[in-house]
Structure formats: C-alpha cells, structure tokens
Design brief:
This protein is an alpha/beta fold and 200 residues long. The chain has helices at 22-32, 51-58, 74-86, 104-109, 130-136, 172-196, and strands at 11-16, 38-45, 63-65, 92-95, 114-118, 141-148, 158-165.
C-alpha cells in the first residue's frame, strides 16, 4: 500500500465562519490528514458559541469572536475584525460560511487574499438564497464558485467553478447538501493551488 506524502504547509490561514462549520471541518480534516498545504492559525466568528467555534476549539485552534451588536457601528466592527485577523499574520483569509460582509479596512488590508465559496455558478444567483433562486429559476445545473472577495456582494474575481446537476426531485436542502460536498473538496483544492502558485 502506497502512503501519500503530507503536503508541505506553506500558507497561514485564518478561517471565518458563522454557523455549523462544515466547510471549516473539511479544512481541519484536510490539515490533520496532510492534504492541506497550510495550517489554520485561527478561526473567527461574528457570533458567540457557534458550532464552528466548537469545532476549532476541539482541534486546538485559537478562536476569536467579533459581534456586530446594536451599540457598535459597522465601521468600528470592521476595525475590530481587521485587528483580530492581523494578530495572526495570515497569508489568506478563508470565508467558510461567514455571513457578514467584510468592510473596507479588512478588504484593504488583504487585497485579493480573502477567499470565499458560494453555492452557485456566479455571476448567476448571488446573495444568501442562491440555492433556492436556482431552483425557482428552473436551472438544470447549479454548482459552487470559489472567488476573491471585493466590496460587492459575490462580485469578486472567480478562481474556479464546479458544476452540480440539478435533479428533478431536488429540494433546496438536497441540492444544497450536494453542493456543500463539492465545496468541501473545492476549497481544499484551491488553497493547495494557491500554495503551489498554480493560481495567480
């Protein structure tokens, strides 16, 4: 039986996640198995006590939470997020189900180094309801897009896309789950290509 050689870890990654953290877990597992050319130096969230935060703590990864509460302006929140990220000196920030729009300070600090995954073939169906929108539009194919974040909503430069066929009996839940399975592999693949220089 041939043993695969673990990839050399060359990228420092801060992962931002807001909810269940299944994409985060895919990255944690890939790192633990030597399939990720980087290491997760911190996980940040905009909410307290998320499943994503629990996953990070279980894996021994430092965490931080910066909540956008009613007494905090979005600009001040953006500064807090940028400062929290900067403490870990990342090469890339990976948004893995992060449900807040990052502000200009954070974007300016990491131009073309904030990576996001979206459950559609952008520019089709941007926004928070992409899977539902694809079904309502009668699409035959959906998929996922890995792209760099800019100041718009899902408008950044596309790195790679993977199609996912839509079945006749698909619901929003079943289609989204099949897209998530592709996203988990795609995000690892893109990070490894960034590390190797295969993606500019």
């Amino acid at each position: 039986m041939t043993m695969s050689v673990p990839l050399k870890k060359t990228l420092r990654l801060v992962v931002l996640a807001s909810g269940e953290g299944t994409l985060l877990q895919a990255l944690i597992d890939a790192e633990a198995e030597g399939r990720l050319a980087g290491w997760i130096v911190a996980v940040g969230s905009d909410r307290e006590n998320t499943r994503a935060e629990q996953r990070a703590k279980t894996a021994g990864i430092p965490t931080f939470v910066r909540t956008l509460h009613k007494d905090l302006s979005r600009a001040d929140w953006d500064l807090q997020v940028a400062d929290a990220i900067a403490a870990y000196q990342p090469d890339f920030i990976i948004c893995a189900g992060f449900m807040k729009i990052l502000g200009p300070v954070t974007l300016a600090a990491y131009p073309e180094r904030i990576i996001n995954s979206h459950p559609s073939l952008l520019p089709l169906h941007p926004g928070a309801h992409a899977v539902r929108d694809a079904l309502e539009a009668g699409e035959e194919v959906s998929g996922c897009t890995i792209f760099t974040i800019d100041a718009g909503v899902d408008t950044g430069e596309i790195i790679q896309q993977w199609p996912v066929p839509i079945m006749e009996d698909d619901t929003e839940a079943t289609l989204h789950e099949r897209i998530k399975k592709v996203e988990r592999k795609a995000l690892v693949e893109v990070i490894n290509e960034l590390a190797s220089g295969d993606v500019s």
